Every structure is written in C-alpha cells, then in structure tokens.
C-alpha cells in the first residue's frame, strides 16, 4: 500500500511542527512522522525541562546571596524527586497535546523511523509513503566520542530524567550543556566537575565574561579543568575511574556519573539519505540558503538537522521551519534572516550574547567602541546580592549601531532581547536610549550600559 501527500515532515520537534502547521493551513495534505513521542528536544529533553530544574537552583542561589541580608536560608534545600515531578507536570502532557493540535489542523500524525527508499518516497513499518515535498527536521544527537569507555557516558536526556542526583558528577565538554547542568547540580548538593579539552570553554561567548562566570561557578562549588584530555573511563565498584591527561601528566579521578556535554551532531542516521540522493555531512543536510537540498529538489531541511549558518537553537529551528514551508508553498527562494538571534547559557547568573564577539568585529575591521560596565555594584544587583555581573556592548562608531552585545547577570537573558531587537530593527544606540523603561527593572539599566 502507498500513501501520498503534498508534504511529509520527518521529525515532530520545533522545526517540523512549525512547517507542518504552516503548510496544512494553506490546504496542503500533510503527514508528520516521529520515532519518539511528539514534542522534540526542546519541550521534552532540552530547554523547557532544563529551565524547570534550574528554577530550584535559582531559589537556592538567591537565598544564599541574601545570607546576612534578611534571609536565613539554613535548611533550605532541593528535593530532587519533587523537582522532577514538577518537571514531569510540564513534559508529560506535551506529546498528546501536540499530537491533538496537529490532527486538529488536519495533519496525519505517524509514528516510527522514516527511511528514504528513493527520491520521492519513504518506507516506515512496511508502508510506503510518497510526497511531492519532504522536510527533514530530525534534530541532533550527542557527538560520538572515541576514547575507551565512552559508552559509560549518559546524555543530556538521561540527566534531565535522573531520579536521584549522585554526589560526584563529571561533565565532559565545556559548552552549554555542561555549564547549565553543573550550575543546577552544584545548587542541588552535588559536586560537579567540568572537563574541557580546550583552553577556552564556552568559546562562542565573550571570554572576559566567561572568566567571570567561571570564578562565580568555582565559588558555587564547580570545578573546571581546561586543556585536559580524557584518555579512558572504566566502571568500578566505587564509581567511574576517569583517566585524564594535562600538560603531559596523567591522573585518575573518580565519579558517580559521567555526562556527555561534548557537542551535538545532526541526527541523520537511519534516514538512508543516499537512497534519496540527498547530500549531507556531520553538520546536517546540505541545503541552499533557502533550505532546499542541494541535490534533491523535493527535499528541504530545517533546524538542527540542516547545515545552515543558524545556531542549533530553538528559535532558529522555528523560523527555519517556517521559511522552508513558505518556500515549498510558493516555490520561492526566501532566505532565513539570522541577524540579531540572541542566545543565553542558563547558568546562575546567566550569560548572553547577540551579534559579534569583540575579536570578530576587530578581525572584520569594524571601528568598535567597546562599552564595558562592571554592573555588580549597580542597584539591580545590589538588591539581589549578586556579586558577579557585567556588560560589554560593541558599538560601530561610524553607524552608531550595536554590532555585538555580551551580558552576564541575573535576568540578563531577558535584557539581551532588547539588544537583539535593536539589531534586528537596525536601531541606532541613540534611538535605543530614547526608550523609557519601567523603573526599577533590569531593562532600565540598559541606558547606563549604552
Ligand atoms: C539539554 C539541551 C538543552 C537545550 N536548551 C536550549 C535552550 O535553552 N534554548 C535554545 O534555544 N535551545 C536549546 N537547546 C537546543 C534546542 O533544543 C534545539 O536546537 C531544538 O530543539 C532543535 O529543534 P529541531 O526541530 O531541529 O529538532 P528536535 O526538536 O530535536 O526534533 C527532531 C525530532 O526528529 C525525530 N527523529 C529523528 N530521526 C528520525 C527518523 N529517522 N524518523 C522519525 N523521526 C525522527 C526525533 O525523535 C525528534 O523528536 C537545547 C538542547 C539540549 C540538548
Ligand atoms: N541554552 C541553550 O541555548 C542551549 C543549552 C544546551 C544546548 N544547546 C545547544 O546544544 C548544542 C550542544 O551543546 P553541548 O554543550 O553538547 O556542546 P557545545 O558545542 O556547546 O560544547 C562542547 C564543548 O565540548 C568540548 N569537547 C568536545 N569534545 C571533548 C572531549 N572529548 N573532551 C573534553 N571536551 C570536549 C568542546 O571543546 C566544547 O567546549 C549547543 O551548541 C547548543 O546550540 C543550547
């Protein structure tokens, strides 16, 4: 039996669902497939559950910052099992709600692993499906590691579902996942260690602010080892024995849990893209700027599984999914606009960025005015007792426009959105400063940062 559609979307995460809904709303006959319960990484195994767990950590940290300032935090602690229940209260209903919403929009929701059989058809559980268009929106998975004992690592999905948080946790890799999880674990009573092979963790963020964050993390009980190579992991009765090498010296460390935070790669295994003549590499499906496969005109890709200039982030997956849908519907070649996409690492406090790093602006020959403020003593941070906060804004002197903004501080993951908007709308700092913010809010600090 063969079933035919205008569009088959593979992957019911952010990118896939955005595209499926848009095409169905224009009258297309659409099917969407997922191998796992509907919802994708962000809602079920990423952004949303992570930030629910972080809420517990924020409360502990906020109380500690107010020690001796009117808050007696003695006895305050995270009950991990209850916090997990709180997380499940959000995540558990997602798959059914999402599927109901898709079917309500007239979309066929299918379950299983999709595999291409030729340029315009796939096979799933013995049924053949053909379509005039396909969207590959299959997301990403942890990058395979090759040191002996790598199989002992658990991934971010397992960490976000732990029934108990063990005392000694190693996070392999010094990126988003390790920093965010280490900041949660430290406030939940564990002793986290992050090992990064490079000298500069969180490489995509401003190095001066990253160093401040690392010091703040050390004070919270997080150990960071840089320029360190893991040469092997073994399981023993007392825990995981991790062999490391740094500056030619070897050492053995012992942990109760070892977590993968060493990068992610496009999830394309099992799709048999070669059967469909779809070119791909570890960064994803090779696409033109308008998200159509470079080698199979029936296929588009969006989100983490597409090799695009966009970062592997939820908002990027959503707008790429919409742009791909629009191009499929209208046979156009519109290109996603990646200007002014902000990103935040949800450590405590959070680290945020939009636009260029200082080094990139200088490499590009832009005459930048670097406006750096240590905001730790400012009213907003005094109020909460936060000791570590700073802003670095990069302004193009010739145009008076923000070309990069880097923030570290409580609620700065919200503040970065103003700067992202300024970049998107091409506002001058003069225009931005003309905004009146409610007072006292973190937003009202922006004028002084500028
Ligand atoms: C721990 C963690 C925390 C994160 N936190 C943030 C954050 O705070 N903010 C942010 O912006 N981003 C965050 N991200 C990144 C964000 O989650 C992703 O960029 C986003 O979810 C990508 O969406 P997507 O639609 O491309 O893929 P996904 O949401 O991953 O969806 C892909 C879907 O495809 C399915 N699939 C794969 N292969 C097949 C197949 N062959 N057949 C059928 N189905 C298949 C999968 O089961 C999956 O459901 C985080 C990621 C992780 C791992
Ligand atoms: N807040 C957010 O938006 C958020 C949160 C989590 C994840 N994400 C997304 O998920 C992606 C993956 O996150 P991630 O933290 O796994 O990767 P990452 O790319 O942020 O960081 C990986 C780090 O691991 C290091 N590394 C790689 N191999 C190593 C090894 N063998 N030993 C030691 N260190 C090693 C790298 O040098 C790098 O510093 C991110 O790029 C991000 O786009 C976003």
From TrEMBL:
Q: Which domain of life is it from?
A: Bacteria
Task: Identify one Pfam family in the record.
Answer: Pyr_redox_2
Disulfide-linked positions? 42-47
Q: Which cofactor does it need?
A: FAD
Ranges where the Pyridine nucleotide-disulphide oxidoreductase dimerisation domain occurs: 341-443
Q: Which UniProt keywords apply?
A: FAD, Flavoprotein, NAD, Nucleotide-binding
Please identify the protein, giving its name as recorded: Pyridine nucleotide-disulfide oxidoreductase dimerization region
Homology family: Belongs to the class-I pyridine nucleotide-disulfide oxidoreductase family.
Give the residues the record marks as binding NAD(+): 173-180, 263
Which residues make up the binding site for FAD?
51, 304
The note on cofactor binding and number reads: Binds 1 FAD per subunit.
Q: Which GO terms describe its molecular function?
A: nucleotide binding; oxidoreductase activity
Q: Which InterPro entries match?
A: FAD/NAD-bd_sf, FAD/NAD-binding_dom, FAD/NAD-linked_Rdtase_dimer_sf, Pyr_nuc-diS_OxRdtase, Pyr_nucl-diS_OxRdtase_dimer
Q: Which Gene3D superfamilies match?
A: 3.30.390.30, FAD/NAD(P)-binding domain
């Amino acid at each position: 039996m063969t079933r035919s559609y205008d569009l088959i979307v593979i992957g019911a995460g952010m990118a896939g669902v955005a595209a499926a809904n848009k095409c169905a709303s224009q009258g297309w006959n659409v099917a969407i497939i997922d191998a796992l319960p509907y919802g994708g990484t962000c809602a079920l195994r990423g952004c949303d559950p992570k930030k629910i767990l972080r809420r517990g950590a924020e409360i502990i940290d906020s109380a500690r910052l107010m020690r001796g300032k009117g808050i007696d935090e003695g006895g305050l602690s995270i009950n991990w099992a209850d916090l997990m229940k709180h997380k499940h209260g959000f995540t558990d209903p997602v798959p059914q709600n999402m599927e109901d919403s898709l079917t309500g929009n007239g979309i066929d929701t299918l379950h299983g692993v999709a595999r291409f059989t030729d340029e315009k058809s796939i096979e799933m559980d013995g049924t053949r499906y053909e379509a005039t268009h396909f969207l590959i929106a299959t997301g990403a998975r942890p990058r395979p590691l090759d040191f002996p004992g790598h199989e002992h690592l658990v991934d971010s999905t397992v960490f976000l579902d732990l029934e108990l948080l063990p005392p000694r946790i190693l996070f392999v890799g010094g990126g988003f996942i390790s920093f965010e999880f280490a900041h949660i674990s430290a406030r939940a009573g564990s002793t986290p260690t992050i090992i990064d092979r490079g000298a500069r963790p969180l490489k995509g963020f401003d190095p001066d602010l990253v160093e401040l964050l690392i010091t703040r993390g050390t004070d919270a009980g997080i150990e960071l080892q840089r320029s360190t190579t893991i040469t092997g992991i073994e399981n023993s009765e007392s825990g995981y024995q991790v062999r490391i090498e740094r500056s030619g010296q070897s050492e053995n460390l012992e942990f109760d849990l070892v977590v993968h935070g060493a990068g992610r790669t496009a999830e394309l295994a099992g799709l048999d893209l070669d059967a469909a003549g779809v070119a791909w590499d570890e960064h994803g499906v090779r696409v033109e700027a308008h998200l159509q496969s470079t080698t199979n005109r029936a296929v588009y890709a969006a989100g983490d599984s597409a090799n695009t200039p966009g970062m592997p982030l939820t908002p990027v997956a959503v707008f790429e999914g919409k742009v791909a849908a629009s191009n499929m519907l209208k046979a156009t070649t519109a290109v996603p606009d990646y200007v002014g996409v902000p990103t935040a690492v949800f450590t405590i406090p959070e680290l945020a960025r939009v636009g260029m790093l200082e080094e990139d602006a200088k490499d590009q020959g832009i005459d930048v005015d670097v406006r750096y403020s240590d905001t730790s003593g400012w009213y907003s941070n005094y109020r909460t007792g936060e000791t570590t906060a700073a802003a670095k804004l990069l302004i193009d002197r010739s145009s008076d426009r923000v070309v990069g903004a880097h923030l570290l501080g409580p609620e700065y993951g919200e503040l970065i959105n103003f700067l992202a908007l300024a970049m998107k709308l091409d506002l001058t700092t003069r225009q931005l400063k003309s905004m009146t913010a409610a007072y006292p809010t973190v937003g009202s600090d922006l004028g002084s940062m500028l």
